[in-house]
Amino acid sequence: MSNASKQPEHGQPGLIPKSKIPPSMKRYFWRMGIFMTAYMAILIWGLSLKNSASPPEGAVIYGLAILTALPMCAVFWTVFRLLVEMEDEYQRFLVAKQIMLATAITLCAATIWQFLNVYGLIIEGPQWFGAIWLASFGIAGGIVRWRA
Amino acid sequence: MKNRLKVLRAERDWSQADLADQLNVSRQSVNAVETGKYDPSLPLAFKIAALFGMAIEDIFSVD
Question: Cβ–Cβ of A3/B44 closer than 8 Å?
């Protein structure tokens, strides 16, 4: 039977379709799960230490702050690894668009926020870029796939 | 870029999912290529051509 006329396996009745989740997505979900769990655990532990009767001081509190941020840095690494590892080039193209749109939304939000601060309309300057970017990444995913 | 994927697929009675399985891509990818929303890379174009036993220029053409 030639390649061009071969019927794919899943087209045959009675066969259970093989898993449709690509290996890159499986790794992405695993990494996300691990790093988000680590983030929550470190955050709860770190804040309980900070709010305890004898909170850590000096280098320890600096270390604690950086330690809390590290799992979030790993979350961003996970997103960019997905872009590198995706097997399907069209899906990779969509994720690239999603990342660019999320970055644009974050930068727009930060710029508006910054000028509200410059004009004295709000006291605090832009903060929590990471959380804003992750929320934007989720929104951008919906927009990109809706337009695809 | 125009392509004859839909016709070639119909001739073989393949669904988009069937073609996607054989190319090892998602069904959305096949749909995007077929409808001209996405131009495949050269490696994917070669893969498509090999699957249909044709030359790339017999499947894809410039608008």
Answer: no
